[in-house]
Design a protein that fits this description.
With 655 residues, the chain is mainly β. 10% of the residues lie in helices and 37% in strands. A hairpin with a 2-residue loop joins strand 23 and strand 24 (411-415).
Length: 655
């Protein structure tokens, strides 16, 4: 029998008797190497330690529950296998994220991508296939996750442009990518690798508003600060955050990575310094009162230049069916860093150029020979980011080899080592033939007596066709910085600065009210509490044991349906053999019966099969005085007093 074929976002329970599975990640071009990885995540969607990240340099989790098995190729395709011992996973692990990454190229070049789940006997349990990938260098194929003590599989199909390092960092791994770091002149300082692509916007060099107003301008500080700032979530913003997920998102947690906008709201109720955090046209929070003035200059300068300040976010949310209704909780983190690192210290190059994507930090050498030029770029705080350009420099004599000269605003400030120059020169020459200067991100750290410069850019072997042959990637200039943040003219985006109206969630569709006499069954708090209810005229009598909490003994259908996610309605009944019917011992068995003129229903919540069971009945305060038992009863009491006892034998979910 073939295994179920999942669509994107679909989930499927794993068989309860399965204690170990193999995850098989497949791709259509065996000549391209894909590194399979797995991340063991807690309830917050993050690893608890770096030992929970299983990848090529750490092929087994610290507890041994997840390990890389190997890669096989056949008929031009390839498969990587990951073994998971479900019985050995710690109770703190809620999800195992199943990931692939490529060192060069992208997942869009790999043809069809597949995810297969097989048990230890080789029986296929679920499959997922997608051809949606484009430029991603890391790809989350799916998740094995725990719900109510049981394991399920979900097809995800989400890509990352920042490679394995960016994806792992997003899930809480402290990454230092040694392959992308260079140690020059004996220095041992390293920083995590990250990729950042300049926004492709072309603006006139002389006028910072010579562009379409309202385009995004990404904070430079995002590249080295991955969602470091937690936004305080207020109750008024919960509907906006909840609306980012599908309406049927229940019983679990999920993570959304999305760009967010930082929009000043000087005329709003929060005061002249307020900065809202917006995503997809919704306000999900505000920069804290202790931070908003510090960030006002950066945000207002970008807005005054006609752009919308943008950065990355990571939004974690959890929703479950609580006792008093659906409970929703969330954490919002954005990439903020420090204001002094959010914008470049200098203007973009005035000659035709293209920004190289970020890859790994490289130290510039011989800065001491150009300290007079560097000193003018050292900011007051001693550290900042800036535009740097790379140029081929031939030796002045016949000896020696060409090297890469590093310039800031056209001034030479140092060079790359001969070995490192060889890794950049082919790309610099190619771009020069196109009439473009190679520009990149750089940083400067210094004082009144010394300074050092580093660059962060891809090498020639990492350059994609888009970099080599695509349109130039440029970053537009901004209006000059002002000492008083309130002095910026924000009229270019004046219509954007008004506070957005609160987001209102659409009401969940409620099923039509069943006919009089119908019996429905439902649960609360993830199945911890089980109920039945029977319709009597215009009211529903339930197995609630009091009039407190989200359920009462007597409710209207409007109130009942608003508090329950899913109802099952009894569609078939059969008589009960009162003394020897084993069905009455079954957990969640439902019966209906009469005592005099009173019609009742009851549900057995006893899970151990005891003869007497534990029956909750639809007895209400109104008819309690006329009945021989209350809202709880033994089976013997029902048998002795009830008439026409029938067992529900078939159920149908109400929609």
């Amino acid at each position: 029998m073939s295994s179920p074929m999942l669509s994107k976002g679909q989930n499927l329970p794993l068989p309860e008797d399965v204690v170990g599975i193999d995850v098989v990640i497949g791709w259509g071009r065996a000549e391209i190497e894909v590194d399979a990885s797995a991340l063991l995540l807690g309830v917050d969607g993050k690893v608890s330690a770096d030992g929970d990240f299983v990848f090529y340099n750490q092929p087994e989790s610290s507890d041994g529950s997840v390990r890389l098995v190997g890669v096989q190729a056949a008929d031009g395709c390839a498969q990587a296998r990951i073994a998971i011992d479900l019985s050995a996973l710690p109770v703190t692990v809620e999800t195992v994220a199943l990931v692939g990454s490529v060192g060069t190229g992208s997942f869009g070049e790999l043809g069809e991508l597949t995810l297969s789940i097989v048990d230890r006997a080789g029986q296929s349990l679920a499959q997922y296939a997608t051809s949606d990938a484009t430029t991603e260098s890391a790809f989350l194929f799916g998740e094995v996750y725990r719900r109510g003590g049981k394991w399920k599989i979900r097809a995800v199909g989400q890509g990352w442009a920042s490679g394995l390092a960016g994806l792992a960092t997003d899930f809480g791994v402290d990454v230092v990518d040694e392959a992308e770091l260079e140690l020059v002149d004996g220095e041992s300082e390293v920083e995590p690798s990250s990729e950042w692509r300049a926004t492709s916007i072309t603006a006139g060099a002389g006028d910072s508003t010579d562009h379409k107003v309202g385009l995004s301008y990404r904070l430079w500080s995002q590249a080295r600060k991955w969602c470091d700032y937690e936004v305080t979530v207020e109750n008024e913003h919960l509907p906006a955050i909840r609306s980012l997920w599908p309406q049927d998102f229940l019983d679990g947690s999920a993570v959304l990575t999305s760009d967010v906008e930082l929009v000043p709201e000087p005329g709003g109720a929060r005061g002249p310094w307020a900065i809202s955090v917006r995503v997809q046209g919704r306000t999900i929070g505000y920069i804290g009162a202790s931070e908003e003035q510090k960030w006002a200059g950066v945000v207002r300068r970008i807005v005054a230049s006609g752009f919308v300040p943008t950065t990355a976010s990571r939004i974690w949310a959890r929703e479950y069916d609580g006792w008093d209704g659906v409970e929703f909780s969330t954490y919002v983190h954005i990439a903020l860093g420090e204001p002094g690192e959010a914008l470049p210290l200098n203007e973009p190059p005035t000659v035709p150029y293209t920004m190289l994507p970020r890859s790994g930090i490289v130290q510039v050498t011989k800065e001491d020979e150009h300290f007079d030029a560097l000193l003018s770029f050292v900011p007051e705080g001693g550290y900042g980011l800036l535009f740097v350009t790379l140029h081929e420099k031939s030796p002045d004599t016949g000896r020696g080899k060409p090297h890469v000269e590093v310039r800031i605003d056209g001034q030479r400030v140092g060079q790359l080592t001969p070995q490192m120059s060889l890794r950049f020169l082919p790309m610099i020459r190619h771009l020069q033939d196109r009439g473009l200067v190679a520009a990149c991100w750089g940083d400067i750290k210094g004082s009144a007596v010394a300074a050092k410069v580093r660059i962060d850019a891809i090498k020639a072997n990492e350059a994609s066709p888009e970099v080599l042959h695509g349109p130039p990637a440029t970053i537009p200039p901004l209006r000059p910085a002002l000492s008083d943040p309130l002095a910026y003219d924000l009229t270019p985006l004046r219509l954007l600065l008004n506070p957005l109206p609160p987001t209102r969630l659409e009401s969940r569709p409620k099923p039509a009210e069943p006919l009089d006499g119908s019996v429905v069954r439902f649960d609360k708090s993830g199945g911890h509490y089980q109920f039945v209810a029977v319709r009597r005229g215009n009211i529903w009598e339930t197995t609630a044991t009091g009039d407190q909490g989200s359920f009462t003994e007597v409710m209207s259908w409007k109130d009942l349906a608003a508090r329950v996610r899913k109802f099952d309605i009894a569609t078939a009944w059969s008589p009960v053999q009162q003394h020897e019917d084993s069905r009455v011992r079954e957990y969640l068995a439902v019966v209906r019966f009469t005592i005099g003129r009173t019609h009742l229903a009851a549900i057995n919540v006893c899970a151990d099969g005891r003869e007497g069971g534990a029956w909750y009945t639809t007895t209400t305060e109104r008819n309690r005085q006329q009945l021989p038992f209350g809202d709880r009863a033994e089976w013997s009491e029902i048998v002795c007093n009830g008439r026409d006892i029938q067992m529900a034998t078939a159920w149908l979910q109400l929609t």
